[in-house]
Automatic annotation (TrEMBL):
InterPro entries: HATPase_C_sf (IPR036890), HATPase_dom (IPR003594), His_kinase_dom (IPR005467), HisK_dim/P_dom (IPR003661), HisK_dim/P_sf (IPR036097), Histidine_kinase_KdpD (IPR052023), KdpD_sf (IPR038318), KdpD_TM (IPR025201). Pfam families: DUF4118, HATPase_c, HisKA, KdpD, Usp. This is histidine kinase. Gene3D superfamilies: 1.10.287.130, Backbone structure of the membrane domain of e. Coli histidine kinase receptor kdpd, Histidine kinase-like ATPase, C-terminal domain, HUPs, P-loop containing nucleotide triphosphate hydrolases. Its EC number is 2.7.13.3. Residues 832-854 are annotated as: Disordered. SMART domains: HATPase_c (SM00387), HisKA (SM00388). PROSITE patterns: HIS_KIN. The chain crosses the membrane at residues 379-397, 409-437, 457-478. One of its GO terms (molecular function) is kinase activity. The keyword Nucleus does not apply.
Amino acid sequence: MGRGKLRIYLGAAPGVGKTYAMLAEAHRRIERGTDCVVAFVEHHGRSRTEVLLHGLEQVPRRELVHRGAVFTELDLDAVLARAPRVALVDELAHTNVPGARNAKRWQDVEELLAAGIDVVSTVNIQHLESLGDVVESITGVRQQETVPDEMVRRADQIELVDMSPQALRRRMAHGNIYQPDKVDAALSNYFRPGNLTALRELALLWVADRADEYLQQYRSEHRVSKIWGSRERIVVGLTGGPEGRTLIRRAARLAEKGAGGEVLAVYIARSDGLTSASPKELAVQRPLVEDLGGTFHHVLGDDIPAALLDFARGVNATQIVLGSSRRKAWQYVFGPGVGATVARESGPDLDVHIVTHEEVAKGRGLPVARGARLGRSRLLWGWLAGLGGPVLLTLLLNSVHLGLANDVLLYLALTVAAALLGGLYPALASAAVGSLLLNWFFTPPVNRITIADPKNMLALAIFVGVALSVASVVDVAARRTHQAARLRAESEILSFLAGDVLRGGISLETLLERVRETFAMESAVLLERESDVAPWTCAGRAGAGAPVERPEDADVDMPVGDHMALALTGRVLPAEDRRVLAAFAAQAAVVLDRRRLRAEADRARALAEGNRIRTALLAAVSHDLRTPLAGIKAAVSSLRADDVAWSEEDRAELLEGIEDGADRLDHLVGNLLDMSRLQTGTVTPLIREIDVDEVVPMALGGVPEASVQLDIPETLPMVAVDAGLLERAMANLVENAVKYSPAGRTVLVAGSALADRVEVRVVDRGPGVPDDAKERIFEPFQRYGDAPRGAGVGLGLAVARGFAEAMGGTLNAEDTPGGGLTMVLTLRAAGSPHGASAPTTLHSATAERQAARC
């Protein structure tokens, strides 16, 4: 059985109707006779969505117990055993409850697809991993649940469920998304018109880029060369001259006028001669293109107009922007120029813009390009001068008698002209024809092959020798010019390649795409194997076409070491191009090694972090559990004392103290173990809606009763936190504040509300902390000032900040007015769209975070 197909309904925000559209699709498939079941769908109390669940077979969910509560999750084994044709799995980015087979729901979906089951799922644009920073800059909140972009990109179908911000806000106001008591907070925070508009634009652009990938793949597979104007793509032809910056900005303005416009700047390095490209100008123009949202491309081509048009058609461009020629008027005798040629051959589907600039008609900074074959026009003129020139000169000299010496000089000048124009062979032809004509018409005896005077024979010999020498010099100069041009073109390409690799910002796939683009190939594949007898495997691929499994199957293969090769398909490259290809292949191997070293470094970093957490956990045991252990030991020692007769009330009180200490000990161990799992990514905090005034008093058990003053208003909004983590964080903060407070001065614990946040401040009147040490006190094993070793190992504040950040909050230190230190713990209010909003009987990934997604 083959792999199943994945269909995803993508939305810009919660409530646009992704789940509704998915269930409607399920009913349509069932009507067509498809075996379709509901593996996991949440209706979130929305009546219209709940109605669509009627008539659909639902696979029973799996119940999991976590921290004393029961949660329901997708039962992967039950769905695999049922083996339907299509399974509906809601909320692709969901985090599973600890105890499930996989940590993420998209991993469950991967198993279903691998089993040959088609899956229909939903996801919001803010849950795509690559857009985390962008979404955070828009909404102010970092999404904790994400799904890899590649998982969504590999979907067989992606359908955008779109809704205008105004319509979505109306749905929210009518109570169709959240409960009525949460509507006002949601409309004033997450569901603001600006937020929704920005998220909608993100979704539209992402889907447009995905559609463009499908289009490019289709055009490549079907070899479609005709331009399809599906979106405005503007190619800017750069020469390396100073006018390039003007052209780039003009193209960017043109792109802004069209929806989804894209700018592609291309510099074509001529391999057949010197060019007027300025490396300094190209170095300036490349970042300018990227800053304006475009891309820079470097292509090798002998015929600049043809290469430019091939590139434009290859990327399905709709417009080309070129600058007016910098050539002077007399230089047009050599041809119409690149701009005129491109405009003439562009065809009806490709518009060409000729942009004026300050460098028009000022000439080129370097000599005009010369070719290895000197060009067709020069060869033609060279042969005409070499063969026709002596005949015309003979006719002229027959009517004007100048003497043999002058005749020889004129024929020699004609031979030099033929050499300068056409190179070696036209000059040899001119020397041969000229010597014969001189001998026949002007050397006594005339009209005969023989030469009577030996001096005339010497003159003819010198003439032939000088002609051959001049022709040889011109030919050598032409070859040297070609070599210099070739080396310059190669150095330009390699300099850009080396710059990208050294900056570390280029991926293997991007590098292979540049190889394919530079040499105009169909595909480029980096193959490797472990040994000489092992099969080849693909390390990276770019382009379309049939996949290459062995280097021998490719049109061009370039070995890289003993067990790696770069394989290209499309055409056979000339030998002179293989030197540049070898450099590309070597750099591809470097990029691959760098990627693997980075992965190894990440794994090593994870191991080091795990070791640090384990070390911190051991230290935390010493730091946080000393008080309850001391209390239990004191109570037990008192009960075992033989010299004291305890009353029943005293005995009961001591036993109660032992029981309380054991309970607290158990509670602390559980919290510390949860923190260690949290830091290693194996557990998610259980986010619930709670009142701050219910948790804070429970955190004061380890300090004297009169040492803390509480000011927690009952009107504070509920917060979305893990009660256990909040209690432990507050206990550490209060204990630290009491420790450094002067005798007789109480610690103030005050709460206040600010927008969609709740702040809890722990204020002491101790010595305070300098500004440069306010961050260091949150590092593990840091004890400020002269605190004795018995005061702890310096882990309390680090644990408190770790718990705060795990719950989506922050913990910072500020100066107390009048002296002292204030710890500010900021928590998310439950009424905000990023806090908890669902019933507390569900896990945080299926309940408290439902307010931020469907």
